[in-house]
Amino acid sequence: MTNTELKKIKIFDTTLRDGEQSPGAAMTHEEKLRIAELLDEMGVDIIEAGFPIASPGDFKAVSEITKIVKRASVCGLARAGIKDIDRAGEALKTARQPRIHTFISTSPVHMKHKLNMGENAVLEAIGASVTRARNFTSDVQWSAEDATRTVPDFLCRCVEVAIHSGATTINIPDTVGYTTPQEYFEIVSMLRNRVPNADKVTFSTHCHNDLGLAVANSLAGVLAGAGQVECTINGIGERAGNAALEEIVMALKVRKDIMPFGTNINTTMLSKASKLVSNVTGFPVQYNKAIVGKNAFSHESGIHQDGMLKNVETYEIMRPEDVGVNSTSLMLGKLSGRHAFKDKLESMGYSLEDAAFEDAFRRFKDLADKKKHVFDEDIAALVDDGFMRGQEAIKVVSVRVETGTGIKPQATMTLSVHGEDKHVTTNGDGPVDAVFRAIHEAYPHTVVLQLFQINAVTEGTDAQATVNVRLEENGRTVTGKASDTDTLVAAAHAYVSALNKLLVKREKQAPEALTVAR
């Protein structure tokens, strides 16, 4: 079977919906639009843009994404209720290819303790919800929440009702990450063999990673006949996360010998997408993360290095370039001009408008004055960080810290709060504590610092520091991230970034009994 004859597996990305449910991963409206544009450009088939009834912000995001997406279908999530479905339909009314994704629990434990509904009531809700959704679009996806813990006979009945009512995609979620590849293969196979008209619809996988099996289970579903995979960039999602898009796509690309399937994904954009989502959410990608981790194509062992020098295929099953990682990390310096900088950005997958390019070039020059060499990773950090510093309600104008042996650490800071500059000077137990106290004095708030983490972007004493800060307030968790050659400056920007995200999260209003875990 040639590449042109490979069966195409649809990639359904739910980074903006299920991924945002990760504690602390709330995204601003502008960040969602940026991610949606990149997903569309990358070749994602369906973008689940949000849960329209969850909040005015989610509704607006879904609605705006329908206007900027050029290729992908845009999907809105809805529970099995009239209000949910109508709200989703309203949000999607300008979409070129709208999809409504409605769901209800089908497992005994969920029906008893969550829904307080019997089997007949659930079957009626499935029929009514899918029928209602068909009033807005012919592309309706139905999901059996907690499908892998559902009684097989009842699951077959549920899927039959959904298909009969007009669903065109049937999703089989492993909501709690409970199943194994063999079990999941058998579930999908059973449904395709037993349910009438199963050959008329597309089956989809949606696997969570609680046992570390999300990708394996998803691929097992594909081998059983599923034509769509639900996944997220970097595998983000509730609890242990979802199946990682980059791992699914590259597994299908590398192992065509046993999985004769293809996707529409431009894999050279995977690294860029990973960095963008990491920057937006503040969730660092672990160094040994498959496909997009910093060490994914690094070799330190002498045996490995010797093998690589003789033939790269000894220890690499794919090329770095295949996922958008440069085979060599080229450097620019303070004498590099705009043309060289623009070429570098383009080679890294960035396309900036004039104003954004000039801002990035200015910050590159500032960085080049502080560092002898500016690596690709430095450029990616400053460009992605620049996207984050836009129209925030709170901004760091200036920060100065005095510290040393026998000196009480002191931070002098100017913070812009809703356009008004606040000048403060505070002491702390350490320089970072002094910086955070200064922010608190300029902008009083009640939060708990859950995480303060520093990572070097590149090697060397002049490396940029990337700081991650996680804050919690009344059950809301947010994460901020920033990079700078001065660790304390990065810490200030990261903390303020988290505060800005907290302001966004405060505005979200969830409806009663909002439950979207699948």
**How many independent structural domains?**
4
Mean pLDDT: 88
How large is the count of helical segments?
Answer: 16
Largest sheet: 8 strands, parallel, barrel
**Shape field:** globular
Top keywords for this entry?
518 residues; alpha/beta; TIM Barrel; 4 domains; eight-stranded parallel beta barrel; three-stranded antiparallel beta sheet; 16 helices; 39% helix; disordered C terminus
Can you tell me about this structure?
The protein folds into four domains: 12-281, Aldolase class I (TIM Barrel), CATH 3.20.20; 297-326, no CATH class; 328-388; 394-506, Alpha-isopropylmalate synthase LeuA, regulatory domain (Double Stranded RNA Binding Domain), CATH 3.30.160. It has 16 helices and 16 strands. The chain has helices at residues 29-42, 56-68, 82-91, 108-115, 119-133, 152-165, 181-194, 214-223, 245-254, 270-281, 302-310, 338-347, 354-370, 376-388, 431-442, 487-506, and strands spanning 7-8, 10-13, 46-50, 73-79, 98-105, 140-145, 169-174, 202-207, 228-231, 261-262, 394-404, 407-417, 420-427, 448-456, 465-473, 476-484. The chain has an eight-stranded parallel beta barrel with strand order 2-3-4-5-6-7-8-9, surrounded by nine helices. The radius of gyration is 24 Å and the shape is globular. The model is unreliable at 299-310 and 509-517 (pLDDT under 50).
Task: Describe the structure concisely for a colleague.
Helices cover 39% and strands 21% of the residues. The protein has 16 helices and 16 strands.
Write the layout of secondary structure elements.
Layout: E1 7-8, E2 10-13, H1 29-42, E3 46-50, H2 56-68, E4 73-79, H3 82-91, E5 98-105, H4 108-115, H5 119-133, E6 140-145, H6 152-165, E7 169-174, H7 181-194, E8 202-207, H8 214-223, E9 228-231, H9 245-254, E10 261-262, H10 270-281, H11 302-310, H12 338-347, H13 354-370, H14 376-388, E11 394-404, E12 407-417, E13 420-427, H15 431-442, E14 448-456, E15 465-473, E16 476-484, H16 487-506
Parallel strand pairs: 1-10, 2-3, 2-9, 3-4, 4-5, 5-6, 6-7, 7-8, 8-9
Antiparallel strand pairs: 11-12, 12-13, 14-15, 15-16
Helix pairs in contact: 1-2, 1-10, 2-3, 5-6, 6-7, 7-8, 10-14, 13-14, 15-16
